[in-house]
Amino acid sequence: MEYDIFEEMxxxxxxFDLPKNLYQFAIGEMAVKYLETLHPDSIIPLAESKxxxxxxxxxxxxxxNTLEDPECFCRISAIIAAFETRGVPIKxxxx
Length: 95
What we know:
65% helix; flat; single chain
């Protein structure tokens, strides 16, 4: 499929990969349906362990002296990347 018109308008063509997006949506729905069949006691420890991993990574980022800049852009970018690598979308301004 040609994306020239989208690219000319400034759109990223990867967002127009309809078959992939449909598969991802369908798989996401299946995962949610499966998780709904589980008892909350079996899901909570997994979610808590992932949250603890994220908090540990954020702590390491905050303590990383190589990420020094006056406005903390490097640290903010690293923290956002930590969320995004775990599938947590972050809405923010691009600087």
